[in-house]
């Protein structure tokens, strides 16, 4: 839920439309598939920039094996 609340809705909606999911379901899926990353987001959210959060989310959506998260 925290991811859904923190990300800009246009980014979440864009990827939810591509994946054929509701935005909240997409965020839950990302959180479930990336528990270490979502724990970092949840535990350090006062230090996270929106640019870093969006970078990581878009990278995780790309499902690139070479992608490295910032958070």
Word description of this protein:
The protein has 71 residues and is an all-alpha fold. The chain contains five helices and no strands. Helix 2 packs across helix 3.
Taking pLDDT < 50 over at least 5 consecutive residues as the criterion, the unreliable ranges are none
Question: Strand percentage, roughly?
Answer: under 5%
Radius of gyration: 11 Å
Overall pLDDT score = 95
Biggest sheet features: none
Name the shape in a single word.
globular
Give the termini separation. 17 Å
Structural class by helix and strand composition:
mainly alpha
Helical run tally: 5
Q: N-to-C SSE series? A: HHHHH
Helix content: 55-70%
Beta strand count:
0
Task: Write a concise keyword list for the protein shown above.
71 residues; mainly alpha; 69% helix; globular
Fold blueprint:
Elements: H1 2-6, H2 9-19, H3 23-33, H4 35-43, H5 50-62
Helix pairs in contact: 2-3
Report a brief summary of the structure.
The chain has 71 residues and is mainly α.
